[in-house]
Specification:
By secondary structure, the protein is of the alpha/beta class. It contains eleven helices and 13 strands.
Length: about 350
């Protein structure tokens, strides 16, 4: 089956604009940008949890860094603040656009109101938003994914791996986007064993409560599911997923990661022997492709751009040899993947 590889990254940093952006979020890299119409690099504004989540935001950062290197430009990536408002996000995106960064990308659906407002003010700048397709504007690219498809494969993996016929799902926040992960996972698992027991839990009702940014919440929820009998846990919880993986390793049960190949993340190295696979979204590729369309091709992408199994936008990581060398599991996954691609398997989204 196809593996969506995580893009290797290298760091670039300068110091201009630090004061300008400090009012609307901290930044880890910066450059002078461009005061004219020509883009000098990418502006990237992180989602809840920020860079270092070993998951969603870090996938965006990987694409950002590769684009900087390949296109010979400097970019600026900006961290979120605790308890920030949509007005803070608007200010952050406006600062990047005014400084000449193009494209400017909001990492996460929480940026939808801000992207809609700021894109209207800067029609010559291309904006990207990840995980939202509600903005219809000529200068906006909606970078979205069929998360349910990779989650279906994660469900097949869990059901083929469990020794107790008892698995678990932990979602960061109880919202439609994360329901897609749950729906695909449950359907995939039940395609293997219709009677399998599946624990399901959401950490919070809203992002503001920390569902995507609280490893302690993830750890506590995982301990509860393991105590209930689950021996394979799949999370879609951003930074909170680090707690899920930590708890799974402590109990010597399997975790399935999300968005990035979490088996390969250095911050999770001490737990890697218990990370079976990860359901990947090629966020890094989406960021890179949008940057290429603006900076190199001069033909900015716009409209809905959706990653799927068919185009390599989602998939499962095969870094763990235990996963990769399981012939029975790989055969089941190959069959499931083909069924999704040819339409004989219709994956649910809720």
């Amino acid at each position: 089956m196809r593996r969506v590889s995580r893009i290797a990254v290298a760091g670039v940093a300068t110091a201009a604009l630090a004061v300008t952006v400090s009012a609307c979020g901290s930044s880890s890299t910066s450059s002078a940008g461009s005061k004219g119409g020509k883009s000098q690099g990418i502006g990237l504004a992180y989602d809840i949890g920020g860079k270092g989540d070993q998951s969603f935001n870090d996938a965006a950062y990987a694409g950002f860094q590769k684009a900087e290197k390949d296109f010979g430009v400097s970019g600026r990536d900006v961290e979120p603040q605790d308890g920030e408002t949509d007005a803070d996000k608007v200010q952050r995106l406006e600062t990047l656009a005014k400084a000449g960064y193009n494209p400017v990308i909001g990492v996460g659906f929480v940026y939808a109101p801000a992207v809609k407002e700021v894109a209207a003010k800067f029609p010559k700048v291309t904006f990207g938003i990840i995980d939202d397709n509600t903005i219809q504007a000529k200068n906006v690219a909606d970078l979205v994914f069929h998360e349910e498809e990779s989650s279906y494969l994660a469900g097949v993996t869990a059901a083929k791996t469990t020794k107790k016929n008892h698995i678990g799902f932990i979602g960061g926040v109880d919202i439609p986007l994360i329901h897609k992960f749950e729906a695909g996972f449950v359907q995939g698992a039940e395609s293997v064993n219709p009677k399998i027991k599946i624990e399901k839990q959401y950490l919070t009702q809203t992002p503001q409560e920390g569902g995507f940014s609280s490893p302690d919440k993830g750890e506590s929820a995982t301990n509860g599911q393991i105590d209930a009998g689950a021996d394979v846990i799949y999370h879609a919880a951003g930074l909170s997923g680090q707690g899920v993986i930590k708890a799974a390793a402590a109990h010597k049960v399997w975790a399935i990661g999300v968005d990035s190949d979490q088996y390969e993340q250095s911050a999770l190295a001490s737990y890697k022997n218990y990370i079976l696979t990860s359901a990947l979204k090629n966020v890094s590729g989406a960021v890179y492709d949008l940057a290429q369309s603006v900076i190199k091709d001069k033909k900015p992408l716009n409209g809905e751009i959706r990653g799927s199994l068919d185009n390599g936008g989602v998939g499962l990581a095969d870094s763990n040899p235990v996963f990769k060398n399981n012939a029975d599991l790989q055969a089941a996954l190959k069959k499931a993947e083909q069924g999704i691609k040819d339409g004989t398997i219709k994956v649910k989204t809720s």
